[in-house]
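Q: For a teaching session next week I want to show students how multiple molecules come together into a single three-dimensional assembly. I've collected the sequence lines for a complex. Could you give me the predicted structure tokens for the whole thing so I can convert them for display?
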Amino acid sequence: MTATTETPAPAGASYEPTDRTVPSRSRERARYDRETVHAILDQGYVCHLGFVRDGAPVVLPTLYGRIGETLYLHGSTGSRPLLAAGRTDPGLPVCVTVTHVDGLVLARSAFHHSLNYRSVVVHGTARQVTDEDERRRALDALVDQVVPGRSADSRPASAKELAATAVIRLDLAEVSAKVRTGGPNDDPEDLDLPYWSGVVPVAPAYGAPVPAADLAPGIAAPAYLAEL
Amino acid sequence: MTATTETPAPAGASYEPTDRTVPSRSRERARYDRETVHAILDQGYVCHLGFVRDGAPVVLPTLYGRIGETLYLHGSTGSRPLLAAGRTDPGLPVCVTVTHVDGLVLARSAFHHSLNYRSVVVHGTARQVTDEDERRRALDALVDQVVPGRSADSRPASAKELAATAVIRLDLAEVSAKVRTGGPNDDPEDLDLPYWSGVVPVAPAYGAPVPAADLAPGIAAPAYLAEL
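A: Of course. Below is the structure for the complete assembly, covering every listed component.
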């Protein structure tokens, strides 16, 4: 885990499995190679951030951005997990999970119904980012994670906005992916049952951009929106 | 919180806010009415289940089914959280979160970029379901949550399959929703900046069903798939 935020991971390198990144079931679906993990992370922009508050788990959806081997999350300086990441030395233990659903898997048997999906689970310690340059790069990455190219086509954050925003970072070190693909795995004795069986593909679909009601005339939707 | 799994919630009833269901920011987006919460839950089938293991948070994607005021989750009897829910008296403290992304909100300023989304966060204690009738109903609900009507059109679980499946339940008691809708909230002084601003709608799209390679001839895709 020597990669920095500026250095691409060596090709073919994998994350080292640990006790908590080896799943207790469906181990054949686990992946540890960086290429798979990065591809799953890069296709999304919403993660589910888990942390512990007063001994109980909390899971909140939030945006993320990836730069190299670091995930960045942000929020108001008043938000609870961000405060905790700053207050707690040496940081806030978190689990960040990103999930894409690719298909509904309908088997003949109710039991073998499943989903095709790709997910990444990152365990680690989130720490507040205080370096101003890193904070700016992180906030750009968060915007570009949602719409690639957008950060360069918007007004950069002002000093006041930067001061109101907390940024936390989580190193990609204890990481696993889980991937299910393919059709249903029915038992051989069920194959002739009179139930349809197969996969219904699922993917996010982006609609035509809706301009803001107060958009100044003559500003067309940018070309990068067509890439979504 | 007197509703049972068999009784619809009284119309207009709301969940009682608690310390941990009142967000620390964007409170105007919080919702506590059952109608909103149920609608968000019923539109999805994947949740992110958070629990604490060895003092650290764990967040895993998994399927759920709702029956009345109860969420059901399932897994192999060997899976860690399911084991913990059975072992721990009086159950496993969990947080279950369901999130739908409805739109990418592009503001003139990087700072005001956002998402339109609807999410539900449920705090509580998950308990293993041991009653066989409730377990069967729960597993049907899990299948029907993904594809309404499907449980009646598949082979029911055998005794062996039931024995291999752990089911946990989580009462909808400490619950909140969070909803953002509408366009970007740019600052007035940014309205004339030369950046496109608006919303890109997002929604899951379902493709044409792909029959299993070994599907017996003459079985057409069922009509309920067209309702997805």
